[in-house]
Automatic annotation (TrEMBL), chains A, B:
SMART domains, A to Z: HTH_ARSR
Domain HTH arsR-type: from-to ranges: 10-105
Pfam families on file: HTH_20
CDD domains: HTH_ARSR
PANTHER family reported for this sequence: SLL0088 PROTEIN (PTHR38600:SF2), TRANSCRIPTIONAL REGULATORY PROTEIN (PTHR38600)
Name of the protein in question: Metalloregulator ArsR/SmtB family transcription factor
InterPro entries registered for this protein in UniProt: ArsR-like_HTH (IPR011991), HTH_ArsR_DNA-bd_dom (IPR001845), WH-like_DNA-bd_sf (IPR036388), WH_DNA-bd_sf (IPR036390)
Signal peptide residue numbers: none
Amino acid sequence: MTGTGTGGTAADIRAADEDRVFAALANATRREVLRLLRNEGPQPVQALADHFAMRRPSLSEHLKVLREAGLVSEQRSGRRRIYRLEAAPLAEVQDWLHPYERFWRERLKGLGELLDRMPDDDRP
Amino acid sequence: MTGTGTGGTAADIRAADEDRVFAALANATRREVLRLLRNEGPQPVQALADHFAMRRPSLSEHLKVLREAGLVSEQRSGRRRIYRLEAAPLAEVQDWLHPYERFWRERLKGLGELLDRMPDDDRP
DNA sequence: TTGACGCGTAGGCAAACCCCTACCTATTGT
DNA sequence: ACAATAGGTAGGGGTTTGCCTACGCGTCAA
């Protein structure tokens, strides 16, 4: 749609990456997997699965989503696969967030100024 | 659901809020709506809808999702409803992101140290 | 007052999501 | 070689998402 011919511009690819990352983060189980990898370090699948009520194959699919978003990597060690947090895509989320930052800061700043202009008696 | 008897702790409520925000951000149309409100200021629905290929009622549903996530607010002005960006929930996303920050910074830092230890001749 | 405008909601439908139970391959220990 | 272990994949089913058209309600202009 946005490309020439059959498409695939650099911007399209970046947008698709962004979409995969946000979509991956939309699920609470996947966010919890990221938290576990962050707090407890790299782990095989079963160790991760022990933290959840769901069956292992379901977790495997979540790991696939995280892998395709670049948020985890796997390293084979014998018959186990050690999953590791890859935080780089989260930096892109932070970049996405950045232009909004002044909006919530303005709100806080505005509140501060409101309090500054308010007579002490009227303050909450 | 969130009553006193059947559960619904403060942590549950925060978790549900977090889930709504991440879910709202999982859609490219909704992220684009936020960007438009940020760049062009508060607008009625039709002005927003003009930027998309979809029909207005579909956009209305996206706005509902954003409203329930607290990411936009509406102000009635005659028969129009002016939507405004509410960035506060994005601060929670930033808070969520924060403990991961050192992971991608470590990666960059590690790269920097590698370059530091590398003889100048070997640098890329 | 009556018609046009702005917008939300209802209902339908296809696709995607998320869980499950088999099942398959690869590796390891006996 | 064989059984057990680790984990991915296939296929099925219920629920959710995201789009549509049709419609209802409130507001403004003629």
